[in-house]
Amino acid sequence: MESGRLSSTEQALIRESWQKVSGNLLQHGIVLFTRLFELDPGLLPLFQYNCRQFSNAQECLSSPEFLDHIRKVMLVIDAAVTHLENLPSLEEYLSNLGKKHQGVGVKLDSFSVVGESLLFMLEKCLGTAFSPDVREAWTRLYGAVVKAMSRGWDVRKEGK
């Protein structure tokens, strides 16, 4: 994650903007995942709990198990924000998280739509405070996180 080093200005922009989001992680996470399913409804079948397939995004988004997943995703983002000065400390954790995502059928290219959904959520939450500089800082942070997660990917399994 060394190439993903963020400037002190970018770190400050991320921290300041995240402070506004972190007051209600679940609510903002629901915005993120609602947008994700709007952009790529094909991701919905990846989310099954107790062998239960959701018939639509709303059913999934209201499931207690999925709400728990949203909390976990938001906590991963929170961990990245907390460790902005030392992102490499999260490398092993994120690599294992990538491996886990591949194991449930997530494709690497799905992370681009997750990134779009993250930026959408931040823009909705921050309004006019979501400046081009804030967008760029978050884009760089998310890129570093995805890069670390992709290290856990077995590319030989990607096509299966």
Automatic annotation (TrEMBL):
It is found in: Cytoplasm, Cytosol; Mitochondrion matrix. It comes from the Eukaryota. One of its GO terms (cellular component) is mitochondrial matrix. It holds the Pfam family Globin. One of its GO terms (molecular function) is oxidoreductase activity. Residues 5-154 form the Globin domain. Its main location: cytoplasm. Keywords: Cytoplasm, Heme, Iron, Metal-binding, Mitochondrion, Oxidoreductase, Oxygen transport, Transport. The keyword Transport applies. It catalyses: Fe(III)-heme b-[protein] + nitric oxide + H2O = Fe(II)-heme b-[protein] + nitrite + 2 H(+). Belongs to the globin family. PANTHER family: BLR2807 PROTEIN, NEUROGLOBIN. Monomeric globin with a bis-histidyl six-coordinate heme-iron atom through which it can bind dioxygen, carbon monoxide and nitric oxide. Could help transport oxygen and increase its availability to the metabolically active neuronal tissues, though its low quantity in tissues as well as its high affinity for dioxygen, which may limit its oxygen-releasing ability, argue against it. The ferrous/deoxygenated form exhibits a nitrite reductase activity and it could produce nitric oxide which in turn inhibits cellular respiration in response to hypoxia. This is Neuroglobin.
